[in-house]
Amino acid sequence: MHPPDASPPKATSLIEPEVAALSLNRAQPPNATHTSGNTVRQHLSEWWWLWWNNAYLGSAALVMLCSPNRYWLKTAHIVTMHVYARLRWPLVFFVVITGLSSTVITQIVAQTLSRYGMGALALALLIRVMLVEVIPIAAALVVAIKLTIPLGAELSRLRRTQHLNRLREAGADALRLEFLPRLLMGIYGVVMFSIMGSAIVTLTMYQGIYGYTWAGHETFTHVFARVMTPFFTFIFAGKAIAFGYIVALIPLTSAFSSTRFGLRRDTELATLARMLLLLMAVQVLSLVINYY
């Protein structure tokens, strides 16, 4: 464990093996045999293996999250300490940039709608777009770039140095000790960034429309409550958690993926592309649920 003010070293184990558990075996997709067919078939097999690996490890992580564990308090402490050490400055910059961007966008939207006699719609529009749609995906992308993709590379180095195999041979659960804490870091990071970003956006929206006065407090809370219904809030919270799960899971599962025919190199850019694909799928699904 490293103190919060120290830069995390490369490819270090998060916690020592303390619990005896399952052995770590890579997921094997059904009927994934070495094919010697044409290149297209081999490419399809590569991608099938990759997505199957993501689904398998993602399901295993969900099972571990739902399983009772006497080390949860220690794991939570490790997660918060490492997230603080790695994301404290990105969080500061994220809050500042979010506040400045929200201030500018609020002024543009409010003044534009006022010219067309629709100024009363500005607040509801900003809440639906800036708060509900933009902030979660912006938080997910920042956490992915600054935290989870480096964590995936770190876990990959641990695997190449046989650290995970040594944990298995010692009778410890490598997934619970090394994979799960890193997954929780990504989820916690996205949720934290979403909460902080939402708070800043809410304050800047109020200031941009009503200024530095309490005169608009009643109107603001009324409009905010009409937009953020319990169902709408539930979808917003679920989307933030799903984004955190995606941006944490995809880089970490890439650490357990190996090419089967030498056709694919799992680079950080490819990892980011798969991540964006799933983020867009969740975003579209949330829009359909909210507005249809």
Automatic annotation (TrEMBL):
Q: Which InterPro entries match?
A: Permease_MalE (IPR030802)
**Which keywords does UniProt give here?**
Membrane, Transmembrane, Transmembrane helix
Transmembrane segment boundaries: 48-66, 87-110, 116-149, 183-209, 229-252, 272-291
A Pfam family annotated for this chain is MlaE
Highest taxon, organism lineage: Bacteria
**GO cellular component term of the entry, any:** ATP-binding cassette (ABC) transporter complex
State the name under which the record lists this protein.
ABC transporter permease
